[in-house]
Amino acid sequence: MRVRAFRGRWTVFAAVAMTGALALSGCGGDDGGSKNDSSEVEVFSWWTGPGEADGLKAMQADFEKKNPGTKFVNAAIAGGSGTQAKAVLASRLQNRKPPDSFQGHAGAELLDYIKAGQIEPLDDFYQRNSLKSVYPQQLLDQITYKGHIYSVPVNIHRSNVLWYNPDILKDAGVDAPPKSIAEFITALKAVKDKTEKVPLSLGAQWTADHLLENVLLGDLGTDGYNALWKPGADWSTPAVTKALNDFGEIMKYTTLEAASTDWQGAAKAVVDDKAAFNIMGDWAYGYFVGDAPNGLGKKLDTDFKYAPAPGTEGTYMWLSDSFTLPKGAPHKAGAEAWLKEVSSKEGQDLFNPKKGSIPARKDADKSLYTGYLQTAFEEWNNPQTKLAGSFWHGVNANNKWHTDIDTAIGLFLQNKDVAKLQQGLVSAAENSGQ
């Protein structure tokens, strides 16, 4: 059952000893914010890209309509997956200058903030707004720590999606999207040998981390992948070695683009007929089909198609964006008004179709979720679907572990040494504190 899967993972998260965390973990914040100040709300996120920026703008407009006396301050920091934003946030929290609300991935990523006393529990907020009945219980379990809820989820994303260009696959003689890692490598080779296109587009370094989690899931299976995040997990097994060797082989067919292009540039290469494949979360869908200037205005099935990442069919590698109430928020009433917008049916139904995600609430308007999003909606709500948390997007690795994996990947991109990569991942797991 899905509920058990979530509870099992959160039991692991709750046992985490947050040692050696980021600099922010040593700071407690200040309780000087005015509980009654609703004059403005500063919302901190990393939603600046196409699709996500449109979704935030739609939610902002609804918020301003409902709260005409509150000034909305968009404090978004550019950078895929929040890499830059989290560094800026750490500095602000350390200096006791929190925003009124900030975005964070639901799961282990928030534990540092909780342990450091930097975000407030939201039990009363959930009670006042009757939210426990509209969110899936398994998601509530995930965002609960020691009996308290600390964030308000706005969406669910899928991380394991293969986006591909049907015309390039046809030219390469690839009849169907690959269903296994072995088939994927064969298809990449065919594209390289038979076309002049890039087999697999890649963006900034974090997209290589994202690729790694998909290869691990594809090779190890759901249970094997989930086992990697349990206490005492062994990353030195032959099965992990094989997966890492496959990752190294796949990387030979990629073009690591400049960091400035980020995931958008890598995804765009597929619909621009420059690359055959891209493995990216389903936020890419909003980018593909959205209208200019932030979207590409492309058509599903004509300009691009999608499939589960190779080897991951039947598994939903998930993540959830959520918002928090920082301790000492300068405009606490404004922050709570924003959290009410984030948690509302109207807000989520305005945001998610543009973002390319599905709502966290159970009572969303299903008619708004078409094309790819209809499939995602149905699979997420199918009790037969297996679940795997995205380590890169904060579900099952704390910040230290996350950083150490990223360091190991960065070294691999330089030396291409799979054995050293595995040594780095073994060390990261042993020193994670989980």
Automatic annotation (TrEMBL):
It comes from the Bacteria. Transmembrane segments: none annotated. Gene3D superfamilies: Periplasmic binding protein-like II. It is found in: Cell envelope. SUPFAM superfamilies: Periplasmic binding protein-like II. It holds the Pfam family SBP_bac_1. Residues 1-23 form the signal peptide. Keywords: Signal, Transport. InterPro entries: Bact_solute-bd_prot1 (IPR050490), SBP (IPR006059). Belongs to the bacterial solute-binding protein 1 family. Part of a binding-protein-dependent transport system for a sugar. This is Probable sugar-binding periplasmic protein. It comes from Actinomadura monticuli. The lineage of its organism: Bacteria, Bacillati, Actinomycetota, Actinomycetes, Streptosporangiales.
